[in-house]
Design goal:
This protein is α+β, with helices and mostly antiparallel strands and 204 residues long. The chain has ten helices and six strands. It has one domain. Helix 7 packs across helix 10. The radius of gyration is 18 Å and the shape is globular.
Length: 204
């Protein structure tokens, strides 16, 4: 018997959710544990590194974006743990700034690609592709993602804020990702569609 679109979508979603639950239950699922701490920063763009269970942004110094206007690698010697997530810094001075006011330096949307969060998808986020907007740090999953976000910054910030608050914050990153890759938001655009929009906006 042929299934309609809704039945097929429901079956695919059930398969994704079952896969997510199975994967999360397996021993040795370090990436999922790293991205989903029990504290207030769930989920986060973090990965295990050495003795640290979850290091934010592959060890990028989140303070350096503000003080030097550049992406810098942090040094494990200068580390702080905030809400079960390890942050690394290029200097003791940067560590001290973070310790005095962590909220000021936290990347928006857990350090995931801000353009992904526009679609409710916590995915990607390259520490060397970033922008500071109104005093907050935004990370992107590459130049194309940043270009797409910058097509309409106010609208995309509003959408990302809404989906982060209503769906992503506090949820398991893998399950949220699977959910929104199956049940896409009404305004979803593929990477190819966004690239075409960027090209049109630039007149190329």
């Amino acid at each position: 018997m042929r299934q309609g679109p809704e039945a097929r979508a429901a079956r695919i979603a059930r398969n994704f959710l079952a896969l997510g639950l199975l994967t999360a239950a397996l021993a040795g699922c370090a990436p999922m544990r790293a991205q989903n701490p029990e504290g207030a920063l769930r989920p986060v763009n973090a990965a295990a590194d050495g003795a640290d269970a979850r290091v934010m942004l592959q060890g990028a110094d989140v303070v350096a974006y503000f003080t030097t206007g550049s992406h810098q690698r942090g040094d494990p010697r200068f580390s702080s743990v905030h809400e079960q997530v390890t942050f690394r810094f290029a200097s003791a001075a940067h560590k001290a700034l973070f310790d005095a006011d962590p909220e000021r330096y936290l990347p928006r949307y857990g350090g995931y690609c801000a353009n992904g969060i526009v679609y409710g998808i916590p995915w990607g986020g390259d520490a060397d592709t970033w922008r500071i907007i109104d005093g907050r740090l935004y990370i992107f999953g590459g130049r194309a993602s940043r270009d797409a976000f910058e097509l309409d910054v106010p609208r995309n910030r509003e959408l990302a804020d809404r989906y982060w608050a209503q769906e992503v914050a506090g949820r398991h990153s893998f399950l949220q990702r699977a959910w929104r890759l199956v049940w896409r938001v009404p305004h979803y655009r593929s990477g190819e569609e966004l690239a075409r929009e960027v090209a049109r906006a630039r007149g190329s």
